[in-house]
Amino acid sequence: MTVRDDAPGAREHSTIDLHWLMSRFAPLDPGPCPVCGTRREFADAGRGPGAVYRPLDWGCPADDAWSSRFDPDGHYWASLEPVRWESEAAHHAYWLAADLLRVAGEAGEVIALPVGAEYESLDGAGEYWVYDEGGWRLACEI
After folding, report:
1. Alpha-carbon dihedral angle through residues 106, 108, 113, 119, given to the nearest 10 degrees
2. Are β-strands 81-82 and 57-59 bridged in parallel, bridged antiparallel, or unpaired?
3. Would you write out the chain's pLDDT as a tens digit for each of its 142 residues?
4. Distance between CA atoms of 79 and 81, rounded to whole angstroms?
5. Positive or negative CA dihedral for 100, 106, 112, 118?
6. Are the CB atoms for 119 and 136 separated by under 8 Å?
7. Do residues 138 and 118 lie in contact, with contact meaning Cβ atoms separated by under 8 Å?
8. Which of 77, 111, 118, 131 is the most exposed place for a label (fewest CB within 10 A)?
9. CB count in 10 Å sphere of residue 104
């Protein structure tokens, strides 16, 4: 999805910008599942494909965790932790980028983030980011 402002000095914003926003303003890492040590993900609410949903909890993605969701003392419930954000603004920036990527994907645009994607910070910091298999990295760290 490209948004363009035709004012002098304007620049196009692309899916790369949206992916960078989602990375920069992602929720705080909850740590591994306390039951099995698996990296937690947004908790699956059991919604069908295409449903717009704002996860509020982290949960264990392991099959046995999901199968124990009806047991209040089971793996699923033990792995849940509320999603926490750096700030309210981070929360809104993350979901704005997620929604714009979702809409672009539904419109048939390519939204996959390619290895080698580049992001230039225009906030005056002069940072230049490159995406690789490990995520976003400052170009000076590569």
Report:
1. -90
2. antiparallel
3. 444 445 555 445 588 989 999 999 999 999 999 999 999 998 766 555 555 667 788 999 998 998 998 999 999 999 999 999 999 999 999 999 988 998 889 899 889 888 999 888 877 788 889 999 888 988 887 6
4. 7
5. negative
6. yes
7. no
8. 118
9. 17
**Cβ–Cβ < 8 Å for 24, 119:** no
Whose tokens are 């304007």? That residue is 10
Please give the span between the terminal C-alpha atoms of the chain, in angstroms, as a whole number: 28
Both structure tokens of 114: 């390619």
Which amino acid makes up residue 119? Answer: Y
Q: Which two tokens stand for residue 87?
A: 């700030």
CA dist list (Å): 104 to 18, 39, 77: 11, 28, 34
- Rounded Cα gap, residues 98 and 84, in angstroms: 17
